[in-house]
């Protein structure tokens, strides 16, 4: 369950969390995440998800690199740049190990961006390149925050499954996103968005909210289409 956060702090990100309550509830109810937590997700579906997530991370890394270049100070730039490097190297290496380790079904052709994956990464790169730093940061935040929440909750729900089978194909994914390091990165990303909102105009804050909501929509769609794919028109 994507848990509620206190909203009496006056933080802008608390407002964003409240604003996306309906979408987060829909994420909670996703059949994909329920089966993933139970360890019953079909292996071919998990492979599809990991393939799409690998394609996504390549684009997300580019968006974060652009965000780093637009950052207001060196410390902020360092965080986004490090996150970009981690997405490109650390997380991608984990995905490659999952895809080539033999636990998942063999690859069926060269992976191609799903409609949702291509739309999501294209939006994030465009936001980073053409919107203000504050709006681009708000767009990038859900990938940190939603993944941290889902990863933590899956780590709890999958604890028995992983304890019974530490080599379960889903164990490494759950461990990565439920880990304290990723949780801290999500908290830092949230604090940077709050800092950006403090100096933003009302118009820019409204744009930040729209960007965050759209990215949460894409998070929901990204997971759902792994289990319920929407094929491209035949060419």
UniProtKB/TrEMBL annotation:
<dbReference type="InterPro" id="IPR016084">
    <property type="entry name" value="Haem_Oase-like_multi-hlx"/>
</dbReference>
<dbReference type="Pfam" id="PF03070">
    <property type="entry name" value="TENA_THI-4"/>
</dbReference>
<feature type="domain" description="Thiaminase-2/PQQC">
    <location>
        <begin position="31"/>
        <end position="227"/>
    </location>
</feature>
<dbReference type="InterPro" id="IPR050967">
    <property type="entry name" value="Thiamine_Salvage_TenA"/>
</dbReference>
<protein>
    <submittedName>
        <fullName>Aminopyrimidine aminohydrolase</fullName>
    </submittedName>
</protein>
<comment type="pathway">
    <text>Cofactor biosynthesis; thiamine diphosphate biosynthesis.</text>
</comment>
<dbReference type="InterPro" id="IPR004305">
    <property type="entry name" value="Thiaminase-2/PQQC"/>
</dbReference>
